[in-house]
Amino acid sequence: MVHFRNSFLPHLHDAKPRHVATPDYGGLKIQFLAEENAPRAIDVLQQQNWPPHDRDTDENDIDTYYAFDDDIVRNPYSEYDDDSIRTSKHCRRVAWHRKLPINCNLIHELDFLNSIQDGHAEYAGEGAYRQVHLLQLDQDPLIAFKKYRWDAAYDFRDLEFMRMDAVVAEVMSTEPDIVDIYGFCALAIVNEGILGGDLEEIATPIEIERGKFIENDKSGQGLQPLNNLTATEKILYSLEMAEALSKLHAYPGGVIVHDDIHLGQFLIDDLGHLKLQDFNRAEIMLWNEEDGEYCRYRNNPGDGEFRAPEEYLDRPLNEKIDVWSLGINMYYVLTGSTVLPEAKTTEEYQERIMKGEKPPIDPRFRERSFAEQTMVDIIERCWIYNPDERIDIFGVVQILREAVKHFE
């Protein structure tokens, strides 16, 4: 072993880092750059230099999109036309935002094309820009191979969606209610394979065309949900959804918004438990040291019928959008039916939500069981129009845990 005299050791104590992040859920301690300096730039020789203040840092440019510098202070509200929203905010991404958990060797070892030809890969489905195949290799666990669709029109921002999926899955990899990740490389991700389907298949087994009614009490036996779930199953599934979502909102490195919570995101494992998946739309919230709070973000008007009113209105967003969507999920689990079924189109549904109409819940569900009464109470609190007054995910988890004790 070689021993060095103290005089040869680098004087690390002389260095003063500009920012220090602590994993304490909202306590990120970030020191801003000196006023005379602009955002840092690092050249190919790894030498720091300071560009002038008037340098254009357009984040839509491909180079600045990928060559991310976390010294840059962002104002997520600057693009709004509404003067009441467009305020001066100094917001930074957390240090792990650009983490890249690459494991390309594993991807190449799968020999995906030959696996398809040999019949080891089974097509499982596809989304807007990804296809999913299930692979069973020898005695290894079943895996899900997600790759870019060959017929998709590639945009460089698509890589960021896939990277975000991998980054969030990686930091959540120890959580039993989050789908595990095994590998990531460029446009491909390998997750654990799950064959039990998703919650949508059992919560809403009857596909209802919007604007159509299905009579659910014509038998004379009172109100009958359109699924076969028992009251106990309903509240347990609700708790598992809420607990999985709470892992994102309570992540010590900063709040993570899933931003795409619907029934199909909850897979059912071999033991019948739910696992949350797909983080490609996730948002790692920025932190404002001056105000001591998280900065809300913009995501453009949302689509679908499971989003919060502030999404349809293109307002600043935070993690409360996930809570509204959870309420939609719980309504499906409770009733098996469509929210606001009298709305004839998705556009009409969205308009009514944007105007502040709270979807009604048949009051007879309160009388069916204690579990269903509890679910109605939670759903109504999830659907509070003002996100600042809406219940948070931790309140939902607490109520559900107390309710589940009645069934133990």
Automatic annotation (TrEMBL):
Signal peptide limits:
none
Q: Name the Gene Ontology molecular function terms of this record.
A: ATP binding; protein serine/threonine kinase activity
Q: Which Pfam families did the record assign?
A: Pkinase
**Which residue range or ranges hold the Protein kinase domain?**
118-404
Q: Which PANTHER family match?
A: PROTEIN KINASE DOMAIN-CONTAINING PROTEIN, SERINE/THREONINE-PROTEIN KINASE TNNI3K-RELATED
Protein's UniProt name? Protein kinase domain-containing protein
Q: Which organism is it from?
A: Fistulifera solaris
What is the phylogenetic placement of the source species in the record?
A: Eukaryota, Sar, Stramenopiles, Ochrophyta, Bacillariophyta
